[in-house]
Amino acid sequence: MEKRFEDTTMEERLADIKKRIEAACKRAGRDVSEVTLIAVSKTKPVSMIEEAYELGIRHFGENKVQELVDKYNELNKKYGDSIKWHQIGHLQRNKVKQVIDKAVLIHSVDSLRLGQKIEEEAAKKNIVCDILIEVNIADEETKYGINPDELIPLFTELIRMPHIRVRGLMAVPPIVDDPEKNRKYFSKLRQLFIDIKSKNIDNGDNKIYFDPDNFNILSMGMTNDYEVAIEEGATMVRIGTGIFGEREYK
Ligand SMILES: *Cc1c(COP(=O)(O)O)cnc(C)c1O
User: Would the keyword Phosphoprotein turn up in this protein's UniProt record (predicted)?
Assistant: First the structure.
């Protein structure tokens, strides 16, 4: 019988997740070093992030810019650049400036206007910002992300921006009871990823800033479906509840 969440320690939960990640990699014939675990710490206190850090976790995901910035300011004093922040939630244009030099990766770019804003702010700070394009993979009305049909046109625009580096794709498929139901979406995202990676992009064109070797991140899979996502090729899994427990929203 599975233990109740309350009866486990974070150390036990992380060990269990690592074991499952390894098993999923093995089933898929992949090396475990290909998969990065992002601990999604949104709504959770700094003390729990410190606990996870002490247990070896280095990548943390946040939805809200203000929360990411606050936690960055508190924890990067202590840990320096060894702690990495991922902006995984929807990003508003007026928040771009605050987050681009604090997040190592923005997972949620889904419009040209947002891309242009990132380009503008990154240019001012003289940095190159790593991003993923978020795809609305199941065509859900309520979800963020670009429609699959519009992915290539958006990609084609973003790779013309010198202060943006497009690193891969991200998706948040439907919430399902049976993770197998999402396998087709993970597989579809991977296919879109491969299509782009193998696309013949003229690198002799000096207005294009794209290197297919750096296009190597597939961010998909959460607490309920990360094992299936890994079997389908995920290189980053974003796990919140499975590490930190249910979230309470005030
Ligand atoms: C909250 C969140 C997660 C983590 O979800 P869990 O089901 O708690 O693992 C992953 N990705 C995104 C984009 C999220 O907003």
Answer: no
